[in-house]
Amino acid sequence: MSELERLENNSEVQINLCSPTVAASETSQILDTLSTKEIVSAVPRERQELLKWNGWGYKDSKFTVTSKDGPLTNDSAILKFVGNRYPIGDTELPYFKQWVIDTFNLDLANKKSAQPMPSSYPAPVVCNEFSEKIKKLNILYSDSGEDRLIRAHGQTLYDIHTLREGTFPRIPDLIVWPRCHADVVQIVKLAHAHDVAVIPFGGGTSVSGSITCPKNEARPIVIVDTSQMNRMLWLDKENMVVCFESGIFGQDLERELKKLGLTVGHEPDSYEFSTLGGWVATRASGMKKNVYGNIEDLVVRVKMVTCKGVLERNCSAPRVSIGPDFNQIILGSEGTLGVVTEVVLKVRKLPAMKLYGSLIFPMFDNGVKCLREIAEYRLQPASIRLIDNDQFIFGQSLKPQANFFHSIIDGMKKAYVTKIKRFDVKRMCVATLVFEGEEEAVKRQEKQINIIAKKYGGLPAGATNGERGYLLTFVIAYIRVSKSFLFH
Ligand SMILES: Cc1cc2nc3c(=O)[nH]c(=O)nc-3n(C[C@H](O)[C@H](O)[C@H](O)COP(=O)(O)OP(=O)(O)OC[C@H]3O[C@@H](n4cnc5c(N)ncnc54)[C@H](O)[C@@H]3O)c2cc1C
């Protein structure tokens, strides 16, 4: 009987997808291991204590509009991003206000309030036997309407619009918080036995609709929230691989590794609030993929609980030539095949040098040609992003300073760019750069890129601009482009 047939026929089976030359238990004995480490997450189990229940990100970080004096009008309005977590915190943003008014033809006096958190919720579809057994197993659970609503959606504009102005046709019936792989095995086994639908939930930052409950699902729907499974299980410094439970948030994972002088280097724009399991299930891509790779390049092996058994490859070799790679089927499976519980990832030493940079081009076309040539020579730094003129103007508008051009370029004056170099502000564009690596390599790469940029009329525009552009990525997620709910 083949391994797959065994999986089909036996719900208890643990299949070993790569004949192990060294079994996992033996492996841990011979390697430089760090024993299991509990991690205090930046995001509490009751997410709504810290995060918005009806939008993106931290509750204390948002765009606000208030009146300088008298009634709120476009003239009297003061637009701010409040909170001090991001580089544009708590200062007036006059240019952004104008950009918003012009771009969306917005009358700030007509600002519409989002609906409050509902006071009643649809009755859950209950499976008493399932719930009773979950209680007996001592697994954390909740059937509160608030907990169910918060995990009924991802973070698409449609999701946010529905939260603020509408209702979801179906929300999950029960939330469970497994604490480890064994809990997930029990939950999935019970769900299978009682015909309960399971949706794995990591950070809830999905933009594919895959955690949204199907409208006509008649079975009870249970959300398996992985956030309490966030331990570092082991670290193998010799082979530079680490094993985490799948519910760890990106920011927790990198913070803990940094303490050890290590990094995975996977940084999707959502990494503050998305989880390792979510990255695997969505085949996520990170901003620094040029150096570190995307999640499929970082994953060594995955443990996944399916309704037919546990899928696991027991050897930790970074690559094997035996048979198909089942990681590739799990990656991007969006929770349809099972719940990922543990992931082994490649780690690297923290780079000796991190350098931000930016380049200005007279036109978008010049920027495209420059980036193409950089790619042809395989010279891409950890992150390189070309921003068109609309995005450039938008990025500049987020600057708090009175002078629109202030500090765009280290020491460079608007006059130099627009008069001497004759760049047209309405056509120019910018590339932001992040270099990571050994100092000499980083400097060499920067120099080579500047030489290529010059061929296409590009000018180095300084580190401050580059750093700001990179970090603003995290702020931009707080902007939702609808005039009805932009600023609440
Ligand atoms: C502002 C913003 C920026 C973003 N930037 C990026 C980006 O730069 N790169 C990128 O690739 N994506 C990006 N995304 C999309 C999203 O963040 C990613 O898809 C992320 O990987 C989802 O992780 P999550 O933990 O939030 O998963 P969730 O949203 O909770 O779930 C996503 C899917 O994975 C499944 N899933 C979650 N955990 C598990 C598990 N343990 N086992 C099995 N299935 C599981 C869910 O069932 C669902 O199908 C962005 C989204 C937003 C809103």
Automatic annotation (TrEMBL):
Swiss-Prot/TrEMBL catalytic activity: a long chain fatty alcohol + a 1-acylglycerone 3-phosphate = a 1-O-alkylglycerone 3-phosphate + a long-chain fatty acid + H(+)
Q: Which cofactor does it need?
A: FAD
Q: In which pathway does it act?
A: Glycerolipid metabolism; ether lipid biosynthesis
Q: What sequence ranges are listed for the domain FAD-binding PCMH-type?
A: 168-350
User: EC number(s) of the enzyme?
Assistant: 2.5.1.26
Instruction: Work out whether the entry's keyword set contains Flavoprotein.
Output: yes
Q: Which PANTHER family match?
A: ALKYLDIHYDROXYACETONEPHOSPHATE SYNTHASE, PEROXISOMAL (PTHR46568:SF1)
Q: What is this protein called?
A: Alkylglycerone-phosphate synthase
